[in-house]
Amino acid sequence: MILARLPSAAICPPGESPAFQTWKQHANTPIHAADDFTGQTGIINLGGNIMKHIILIVLGTILAGAAHAHPDHADAGMRQEAAAMAAAAGEFLATLDEDQRASVLFDLADTEAREGWSNLPTVMAPRAGLQIATLNDAQRIALHGLLARGLSSEGYGDAMHIMTLETYLRAGVEAAIAERGDELSDENRARATSLMEAYDPENYWVRIFGDPASGTWSLVLDGHHLAVTATVVEGRIAFTPVFLGNNPQTIQTGLYAGRRSLQHELDRVADLMASLDTGQMDELDQPIDTLESFRFAGPNWVPDMEAAPEGLSAADLSADQQVLLAYAIREFIGVATLAAADAQMARIEADGLDNIMLAWWGDYTDLSRRFMLRITGPSLHIDFTRTGREDRPNHFHIVIRDPSNEYGSDWLQAHYEEAHAEE
Fold first, then answer.
1. What is the structure's pLDDT at 353?
2. pLDDT of residue 38
3. 239 and 337 Cβ atoms separated by less than 8 Å
4. Half-sphere exposure of residue 85, counting CA atoms within 13 Å on the CB side?
5. Fewer beta carbons within 10 angstroms: which end of the chain, N or C?
6. According to DSSP H, which parts of 4-47 are helical?
7. pLDDT per residue as tens digits for the range 329-371
8. CA atoms within a 13 Å half-sphere pointing along the CA-CB vector of 13
9. Where are the domains of the chain?
């Protein structure tokens, strides 16, 4: 079926959806060839060729409209999501006492606190804000209402799974301490105990910047292996940066053995990698000893927009491979709410294929081994690594950035300039 080849917003020339391009391709083909488009030969035989042409026109129109909604409709969707987030934030704040509100609320201009997320455990990188462990049941319910509104169902599920995995890390350190027994020095025992206590599904911290009721504000939730952000500026939502990690990626033993997190991201990347030919792999593959393979796009990372392009240009992919790339990108940014992710995909599409690059470090023939993939463009920066022990790399790190509008910086700048102009 041709439907399986169409991402919700694949990369294509501005103004023409992939569905409409497909319809144009098939609209003037002989009717016997158009059987591939309808799915199976002979299913519809009401009126012969005329009926088939009608079906092609109607289906093409529906798909074109679904893939590229009218801009006013897309804006309305974003505004609705932003309003729902603000309402949920207000409901959460209403459950807090005065001291808790003082802990969770920050000035929107406090960039140090807003950008102070980390992948590291809190014992290595202390957090600011309000810790989930301190919340009562009603406050937790309201907070999760906010998180569910600020993320897609996929993103919310990923975040909850990542937080739950802290119990496995805690159990692992606890078992290691017990196994080593008296072999551990007091200093090492204290260090291991601090790390064990930091691995806690309640050890995540929320910060709200500005007043959600004003229409311009920001949300950060972070802790070990998780940082999600949302910046709302007058009905628009910027959701980068995002950090998603896991350890273990696949649970190996016990009641939940086999459960995985961030698996679809791996699967989409594997599909793309499997489609590349030798020449494309040669362009994609980078020397493992280059500094770039270790310069992960963490909190203080700033993109070098003047750096020479590195790796394989998406313009050198076949049409089918470009669809696989679009699927992979859409999977990564699918952590965001629907309208926010669609808007980001539209910006990536508008950048053009010539400006999107892919680079790979590690063994590209075996994705069960350690690797790093980087996908970069003017509105996109994704780092995806498989890391951990050489013999058991069961540990992912993913960072999603937008060099053109990180933390909604472009929108906030315009907002501030407009506000000052009115003073």
1. 84
2. 36
3. yes
4. 37
5. C
6. 18-27, 35-38
7. 999 999 999 999 999 999 999 999 889 999 998 888 899 999 9
8. 4
9. 2-67, 81-240, 263-404
Which residue shows structure tokens 């022990």? Answer: 389
95: burial class by Cβ within 10 Å (0-12, 13-18, 19+)?
Answer: middle
Q: What are phi and psi of 160, to 5 degrees?
A: -65, -40
Axis crossing angle, helix 153-164 with helix 166-180, rounded to the nearest 10: 10
The label of the residue with tokens 């203080």 reads 300
Q: How far apart are the C-alpha atoms of 175 and 65, rounded to whole Å? A: 56
Contact (CB, 8 A) for 313 and 354: yes
**Please, what's the b/e burial string for 29-55 (b: 16 or more CB within 10 A of its CB; e: otherwise)?**
eeeeebbebbeeeeeeeeeeeeebeeb
Looking at residue 401, what is its pLDDT?
92
C-alpha–C-alpha distance, residues 200 and 210, integer Å: 28
Model pLDDT, residue 354: 84
404, HSE (Cβ side, Cα atoms, 13 Å):
10
Cβ count within 10 A of residue 232: 28
Q: Are 25 and 9 in contact (CB under 8 A)?
A: no
Please tell me the distance from the alpha carbon of residue 17 to that of residue 341, in angstroms, as a whole number.
16
Q: Phi and psi for 376 in degrees, rounded to 5?
A: -130, 150
Tokens of 377: 């463009």
Name residues of the chain where pLDDT drops below 70.
1-74, 289-309, 410-423
Whether omega for the bond prior to residue 212 falls within 30 degrees of 0, making it cis, is no
Torsion of CA 5, 153, 396, 189, to 10 degrees: -170
Listed residue (227, 214, 223, 239) closest to 105, CA to CA? 214
Residue indicated by tokens 């470090």: 361
Query: pLDDT tens, 1-53?
Result: 333 333 444 444 444 444 434 434 443 443 333 333 333 333 334 444 554 44
Q: Report how far residue 274's alpha carbon sits from residue 280's, in angstroms, rounded to the nearest whole number.
A: 11
Give the pair of three-digit tokens for residue 112: 């140090």
Q: Using H for helix, E for strand and C for coil, what is the string for 272-339? A: HHHHCCHHHHHHHECCCCCHHHHCCCCCCCCCCCCCCCCCEEHHHCCHHHHHHHHHHHHHHHCCCCHH
